[in-house]
Amino acid sequence: MINRQLFMTHEIKNLIEHIWTAQQQNLKSVLATVVALEGSSYRRPGVRMLIQENGKTFGAVSGGCVEKEVVLQAQSVLESDVPKIMTYDGRYRLGCEGIIFILIEPVKLSEELKIQFETVLKKRIDFHSETFFTREEQSNIAFGTQFLFSGNSFSLRDNFEAPSEKMSCFRQTFEPLFQLYLFGAEHDTVCLCKTASDLGWQVTVVASADEAKTISFFEGAHQFISTTIDSLDVSAVDSQTAILLMTHSFNKDVQYLLALANTRSAYFGILGPKHRRERVIEKALDFNSELSIDFLERLHGPAGINIGAESAQEIAISILAEILAVVRKQNPMQLKEKKGSIHE
Question: CA angle at residue 327 from 322 to 333, to 5 degrees?
């Protein structure tokens, strides 16, 4: 089984950082991974939770109904250093309505694994994981996870051996960290930056020098770029990138639109009413009549979905919801109107 889910890369990135920090403090850690599911659950296979011997936990494998049992089961793995499979049957409890299979395994990162992990993140390339297990509740030294970076495999512990062909293998693909480029430096940019950062996105704020702002003004920003539009480097914009023009300046929006015309972002939005978007496009065509129809049709303006948003915080939610819907190819609707399961 191969699992490819957008926006999960930041979760494993955070867990790797916590594992590495714990190792420097000589603290043991075990990793709990949902590897299979029968029925429905709050989240799908591939979600993870870290449990440390000092009692601290990071991440989650459900909405809260499973975590206490995972922590309890993890204690034997912390003591024995032997992985185990546990199951959680939500059919007899409130909340989830399926059977969740969770691998709990001891983890110890090699320095080489950490270097390779940071390299693929920096280069913005896909990487993969393989987790070996059975659906029977048991402890087994052969259970475990390995990462594959550019064809080379790195296990999450020292004593991991080649698994048996009889085992199940949960395979997962991690895409580059999703990034959001915000062009503008007003109060609404601050709100959008913080909320997107809370989602785990890497946020880059781009503003002209006359804005007189620094990265400290934007909570959660990964990068702040202050340069002339002519010097703007857009080479980092890829298919795992969302763009939003929100400068509150008509002329700047036109210039940024022209500078970004050859990018292939996952989403491109323009803040402001529909007639303003049309004026921006019209003026951009005056400067470059060869702007592609495909590019212009991909522009979302007004950016966001209709939830009656009024404040900057509410508008941020509206815009981020539209980005998620576009990237995941979903038509926004009330879940009670959706046919089939939530995660279909």
Answer: 45
